[in-house]
Amino acid sequence: MSKNVLITGAAGFIGFHLAKALHARGDFVIGLDNFNDYYSPKLKSDRADLLNALGIVVEKGDICDAHALHALVKTNQVTHVVHLAAQAGVRYSIEAPHAYVKSNLEGFVHILELCRAFPHLKLVYASSSSVYGLNEKIPFSEKDPTDHQASLYGATKKSNELLASSYHHLYKIPVTGLRFFTVYGPFGRPDMAYYSFTKEILSGNPIRLFNQGQMERDFTYIDDIIAGIVQAVDLEAAHEIFNLGNNRPVTLLEFVQTLEHAIGVSAKKTYLPMQKGDVTKTFADISHSQKHLRFSPQTDLTKGLQKFVDWYRIYYDIPTPIDSETPKI
Ligand SMILES: NC(=O)c1ccc[n+]([C@@H]2O[C@H](COP(=O)([O-])OP(=O)(O)OC[C@H]3O[C@@H](n4cnc5c(N)ncnc54)[C@H](O)[C@@H]3O)[C@@H](O)[C@H]2O)c1
């Protein structure tokens, strides 16, 4: 049966792709986003325009506005909420902690209160691999303790899991948290390394490799993440947490090499020490999501980064090395 899904953060990277996927399979989708300027609002409005062209409306509004949330649910007979709106980014949480408290804590409680007010709603929300923080045991399993966050961002995501758990206990809200591992792909987030590296490499500027390029990340392609979210929506679990990650971490250096090949240009590299708030490695144990969500990432880094770079060149109107003067590797 088709669903009426409210996606918060629908003009964001993951929200945009999820809205398209749910719409394509016949669900009704209504989006909400405040189009803030943490990164280019134009990128957000371009995403929203593309959704609009498909008949998907993205309302401009804030998740801290309870009246707006209630009206959206009533008017659109919403059955499911996928809550993706948040202040994202580990490094920015050192600079602007209050933005995280506002959207990730206060905003999250508004979403839980919405579900309390409309008990038929089923909630899926974005958590993060950041909750594993300083854990050293790998791969990271949902069964592992997550008591040592490395950043305020991670702490807000961990708080979301605790708040969701208490609301489930108190009001039986059906709620699923998804711990995403470094998601990348077309229409991605300009604050993330793969995006800013692409920009700098194409401009001939050096890229900054923290921890001397020795950090490892479990980069996960957007289509794989979307498949996992859609399965979580359909599962309608009472109370669950799942890892959604590629299950194959790569070092930053290997990642940059793959990106250089996708772009066709060598990067100038500046090696720097570890940054505050960062963790050295992320690595998802996906046995739980394989079993319950049939989660099975299909896109390797070479294919995924090529798709990103191809999109980037079209979006910013940058010619490929074949028809430009850009030196090849
Ligand atoms: N992309 C990743 O690698 C990654 C990894 C782990 C977790 N996550 C989480 O997944 C979710 C989606 O991430 P994304 O990469 O699409 O980020 P994004 O920043 O592109 O999308 C979030 C959207 O939410 C909107 N928003 C923020 N605060 C809001 C508020 N108070 N009210 C209404 N809208 C608001 C923003 O304008 C943005 O469009 C976030 O919760 C993020 O923390 C993402």
Structural topology:
Elements: E1 4-8, H1 13-24, E2 28-33, H2 41-53, E3 57-60, H3 66-75, E4 80-83, H4 92-95, H5 97-117, E5 122-128, H6 152-171, E6 175-180, E7 183-184, H7 193-203, E8 206-209, E9 216-217, E10 220-221, H8 222-235, E11 239-244, E12 250-251, H9 252-263, E13 268-271, H10 287-293, H11 301-315
Parallel strand pairs: 1-2, 1-4, 2-3, 4-5, 5-6, 6-11, 7-10, 8-13
Antiparallel strand pairs: 9-12
Helix pairs in contact: 1-2, 1-8, 5-6, 7-9, 9-11
Nicotinamide-adenine-dinucleotide is lined by residues 9, 11-15, 32-36, 44, 62-64, 84-88, 103, 107, 126, 128, 180, 182-183, 189.
Shape: globular
* Biggest β-sheet: strands ordered side by side in the sheet: 3-2-1-4-5-6-11
Output mean pLDDT: 95
Question: How many structural domains?
Answer: 2
The CATH architecture of the largest domain would be: 3-Layer(aba) Sandwich
Beta-strand percent range: 15-25%
CATH C-level class of the largest domain is: Alpha Beta
Could you give the order of the helices and strands?
EHEHEHEHHEHEEHEEEHEEHEHH
Tell how many strands the DSSP assignment holds: 13
Head-to-tail CA distance between termini: 51 Å
Ions, cofactors and other bound molecules: nicotinamide-adenine-dinucleotide
Determine the fraction of residues in helical runs and give it as a percent range.
40-55%
The number of helices is 11
CATH topology (level 3) name of the largest domain: Rossmann fold
Kindly provide the radius of gyration, computed on alpha-carbon positions and rounded to a whole number of angstroms: 19 Å
User: Tell me about the biggest sheet?
Assistant: 7 strands, parallel
Task: Name the CATH homologous superfamily of the largest domain.
Answer: NAD(P)-binding Rossmann-like Domain
- Identify low-pLDDT runs: 324-329
Question: Which structural class is indicated by helix and strand composition?
Answer: alpha/beta
